[in-house]
């Protein structure tokens, strides 16, 4: 994001009450955490799917 855009957002945030600033910060933090958890779950699901794939199992056996 361009620094001018960030500066504009920061100036708008400064206009908020302290309570609203904290609420916004908590909301953004929660959203970032939830996104990270969802990505991790997605990766784990992909790995589980790969592990259950007969073709991948065959290739792993051949590598052993």
Major sheet size, sense and barrel closure = none
Mean pLDDT score: 93
- How many domains? The number is 1
Shape by Cα distribution: elongated
The N- to C-terminal Cα distance equals 48 Å
Label the structural class: mainly alpha
Q: How many H/I helices?
A: 3
Order of helices and strands: HHH
Strand content: under 5%
Helix content: over 70%
Number of strands: 0
Low-pLDDT stretches: none
Radius of gyration: 22 Å
Provide an overview of this structure.
With 64 residues, this protein is an all-alpha fold. It has one domain. The chain is built from three helices and no strands. The protein is elongated and about 65 Å long. The termini are far apart.
What is the topological layout?
Blueprint: H1 3-14, H2 18-52, H3 54-63
Report a brief summary of the structure.
The protein is an all-alpha fold. Helices cover 89% and strands 0% of the residues.
Q: What are the key terms here?
A:
64 residues; 3 helices; elongated; mainly alpha
